[in-house]
């Protein structure tokens, strides 16, 4: 199977030693390509469940086959990973080649050499610098890099880099992570509380057994879930085996990484999409060699070639960020369970607010449920209150109610920190002409352009489109008629600066926290109390631990409830509970204030009462009768084409060919909420089935009936979690 190709191709070979998993050079048209020798179709079929099996390959005339050029002398793809590739392909209906390409990110024919990486020496402001040196520091702010990579990125000679090192502007990044069991300078792990110890023992036992078992580890924020699952990781290291920990926002998880490093005396192997190629290759080789290690990564780390996997952990298992929405569309959490099952090792799903899917698996007896009941060391859960915005609205043109503003003032006066959460980047989500009512939209998407005042641009959050902020209305040409509507975090920042004079603000969004280095600096500033108030998007929800933070204000708690998403309420509760969980994590108690126009909504009530399980029981009761997930299954078909007519025609053809039968139903076609995306016109259909009906064979048959024109495309999303 040459990579970047869709499916398995046949070749002949004279090499009797060639086995599945080997990498080979093969002819493809006039080119030479790298491929991976795949298992025979019967072998592939035998290791898949019957309803996922691939259709049999077309027979090829052996005389037309071309020979393999040669075997590449490098370790092959382990069988467990080939098996996983087949499974993911069969489950998601993505071509095997596309999945294999993910498993080969980081593959290289020759093992890479170790190189020294350099990072910014201190987050402080360096003295006045030459332009060239400034460029170097800017480049290094992204992530630690080799001298060569830094010189390339900054566009300077390597002499400039050496000078920066001499001047102590750059320092060597902690050496390449490796497993050590001889570290004697490692601080002893904390003594667990009695209830933590009970859970830790259960997790260690599960690791000891080395057989498949799925465990839900639930506990409120700050209850010590991380502490406890690190015990399981330690047990796995004691067995000299490999562990995989998936985190939803690993690129910024500097706190997690330093905590790990402090506890174990060596760094984990970090894996995510913004790592450089050299780093990727080293991790790939390390994992392939079977040496004991801990990989902490984004969902794509599932496709690393573990040869001695002993444990899989999915932290924040409820996070939608585990769903990959492009290319191979798969759910990292679900595929993690599968990966563990194939490797016959335990998998631990960790959350303060588990997904309904996982809770249903617990109920059905498929997953074991372990619960940490309280916050560690008697820290209280924050006091959560809903601020009814109908009763105490903010002043005209403002977004923070008087109650929230005075709570901020009081918190800061006590020398504590506050955080304002609004899940919206930029200045305002909509810009409107007061004269003619024109709304500034993306020319390529059904979406408003979002003003980013700091960058002086209007930006589409769905494609790359951006333009300068216009000075007159593009429609009626009126001047000074364009007004921002609604708040983004930049606008809230402006309001805070106006209302709370002298406050030191730190903004945390994907625009400001662009790298692990930026995150590291932000965390340091917060810990040193060089910051009074944090304003952030959903990035602030992720496992941060800010000891002095006691107040969390949610600017628009209703934001996520809009739109027809079946999980809107569940997600709102999960996200806001997680954000609120940042408050009062140490001795001083925390407060969470939710600005809402819907104080009676079940999601708000659940947040205030902090009775998550009661809320989830209601959610289950709402979804069960209609066979919505997890009580039935969904598969989405997203049709797109260059013209609306072409999209409609294909959607209609799909609808006409739709499968019929007991327990299944096709909803749509309907225009997608993003009717136009990157210039393509989109329609959606949704297949909903009872549990126990295999959707993949239905979909295969259904899709086979269609002939697509060159501008038309159908994307299949099994178990969709977003419906844009
Ligand atoms: P969670 O993952 O549930 O949010 P953590 O494991 O991050 O919880 O623990 C919250 C905080 O409490 C962390 O700072 C952690 O170091 C501390 N902590 C938890 N358990 C203990 C313990 N047994 N002894 C000392 N500190 C602990
Ligand atoms: Zn756009």
Automatic annotation (TrEMBL):
Cofactor note: Binds 2 zinc ions per subunit.
UniProt keyword Isomerase, yes or no: yes
EC number: 5.6.2.4
PROSITE patterns: HELICASE_ATP_BIND_1
Domain Helicase ATP-binding intervals: 206-372
One Pfam family of this chain: DEAD
Cofactor: Zn(2+)
GO MF, any single term: hydrolase activity
Residues that bind Zn(2+) 2: 442, 445, 460, 463
Keywords: ATP-binding, DNA replication, DNA-binding, Helicase, Hydrolase, Isomerase, Metal-binding, Nucleotide-binding, Primosome, Zinc
Binding positions for Zn(2+) 1 per the UniProt entry: 433, 436, 473, 476
Catalytically driven reaction(s): Couples ATP hydrolysis with the unwinding of duplex DNA by translocating in the 3'-5' direction; ATP + H2O = ADP + phosphate + H(+)
Record's subunit section: Component of the replication restart primosome.
Protein family: Belongs to the helicase family. PriA subfamily.
Function: Initiates the restart of stalled replication forks, which reloads the replicative helicase on sites other than the origin of replication. Recognizes and binds to abandoned replication forks and remodels them to uncover a helicase loading site. Promotes assembly of the primosome at these replication forks.
The protein's name: Replication restart protein PriA
Organism: Candidatus Kirkpatrickella diaphorinae
């Amino acid at each position: 199977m040459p990579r970047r190709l869709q499916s398995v191709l046949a070749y002949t070979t004279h090499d009797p030693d060639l086995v599945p998993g080997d990498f080979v050079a093969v002819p493809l048209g006039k080119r030479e390509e790298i491929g991976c020798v795949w298992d025979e179709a019967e072998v592939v079929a035998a290791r898949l469940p019957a309803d996922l099996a691939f259709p049999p390959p077309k027979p090829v005339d052996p005389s037309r086959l071309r020979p393999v050029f040669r075997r590449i002398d490098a370790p092959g793809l382990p069988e467990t990973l080939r098996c996983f590739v087949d499974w993911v392909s069969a489950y998601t209906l993505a071509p095997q080649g596309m999945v294999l390409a993910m498993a080969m990110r980081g593959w290289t024919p020759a093992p890479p050499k170790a190189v020294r990486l350099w990072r910014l020496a201190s987050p402080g402001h360096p003295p006045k610098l030459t332009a060239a040196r400034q460029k170097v520091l800017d480049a290094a702010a992204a992530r630690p890099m080799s001298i060569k990579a830094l010189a390339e990125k900054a566009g300077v000679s390597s002499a400039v880099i050496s000078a920066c090192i001499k001047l102590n502007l750059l320092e060597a990044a902690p050496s390449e992570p490796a497993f050590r069991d001889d570290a004697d300078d490692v601080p002893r792990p904390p003594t667990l509380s009695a209830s933590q110890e009970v859970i830790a023992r259960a997790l260690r036992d599960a690791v000891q057994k080395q057989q498949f078992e799925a465990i839900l580890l639930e506990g409120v924020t700050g209850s010590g879930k991380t502490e406890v699952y690190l015990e399981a990781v330690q047990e796995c290291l004691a067995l000299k085996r490999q562990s995989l920990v998936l985190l939803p926002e690993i690129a910024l998880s500097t706190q997690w990484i330093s905590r790990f490093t402090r506890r174990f005396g060596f760094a984990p192997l970090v894996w995510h999409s913004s790592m450089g190629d050299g780093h990727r290759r080293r991790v790939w080789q390390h994992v392939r060699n079977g040496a004991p290690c801990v990989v902490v990564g984004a969902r794509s780390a599932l496709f690393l070639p573990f040869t001695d996997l002993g444990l899989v952990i999915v932290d924040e298992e409820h996070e939608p960020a585990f769903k990959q929405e492009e290319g191979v569309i798969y759910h990292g959490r679900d595929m993690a369970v599968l990966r563990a099952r194939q490797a016959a090792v335990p998998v631990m799903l960790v959350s303060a607010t588990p997904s309904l899917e996982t809770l249903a698996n617990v109920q059905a007896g498929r997953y074991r449920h372990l619960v940490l009941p309280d916050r560690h060391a008697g820290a209280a859960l924050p006091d959560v209150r809903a601020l009814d915005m109908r009763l105490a609205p903010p002043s005209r043109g403002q977004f923070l109610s008087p109650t929230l503003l005075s709570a901020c003032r009081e918190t800061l006066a006590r020398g504590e920190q506050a955080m304002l959460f609004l899940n919206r980047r930029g200045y305002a989500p909509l810009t409107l002409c007061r004269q003619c009512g024109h709304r500034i939209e993306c020319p390529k998407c059904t979406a408003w352009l979002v003003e980013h005042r700091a960058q002086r641009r209007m930006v589409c959050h769905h494609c790359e489109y951006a333009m300068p902020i216009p000075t007159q209305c593009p429609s009626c040409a009126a001047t000074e008629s364009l007004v921002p509507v609604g708040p983004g975090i930049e606008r809230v920042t402006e309001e805070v600066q106006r209302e709370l004079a002298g406050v030191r603000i730190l903004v945390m969004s994907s625009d400001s926290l662009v790298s692990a280095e930026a995150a590291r600096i932000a965390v340091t500033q917060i810990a040193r109390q060089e910051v009074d108030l944090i304003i952030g998007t959903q990035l602030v929800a992720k496992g941060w631990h800010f000891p002095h933070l006691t107040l969390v204000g949610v600017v628009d708690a209703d934001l996520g409830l809009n739109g027809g998403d079946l999980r809107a309420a569940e997600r709102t509760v999960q996200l806001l509970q997680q954000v609120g969980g940042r408050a009062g994590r140490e001795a001083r108690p925390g407060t969470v204030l939710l600005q809402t126009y819907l104080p009676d909504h079940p999601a708000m009530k659940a947040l205030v009462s902090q009775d998550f399980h009661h809320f989830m029981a209601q959610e289950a009761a709402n979804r069960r009768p209609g066979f919505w997930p997890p009580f039935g299954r969904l598969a989405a078909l997203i049709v797109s084409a260059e013209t609306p007519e072409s999209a409609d025609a294909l959607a209609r053809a799909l609808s006409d060919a739709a499968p019929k039968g007991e327990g299944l139903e096709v909803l749509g076609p309907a225009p997608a909420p993003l009717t136009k995306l990157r210039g393509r016109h989109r329609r959606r259909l949704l297949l909903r089935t009872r549990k126990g009906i295999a959707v993949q064979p239905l979909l295969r048959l259904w899709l086979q009936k269609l002939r697509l024109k060159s501008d038309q495309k159908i994307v299949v999303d099994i178990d969709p979690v977003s419906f844009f």
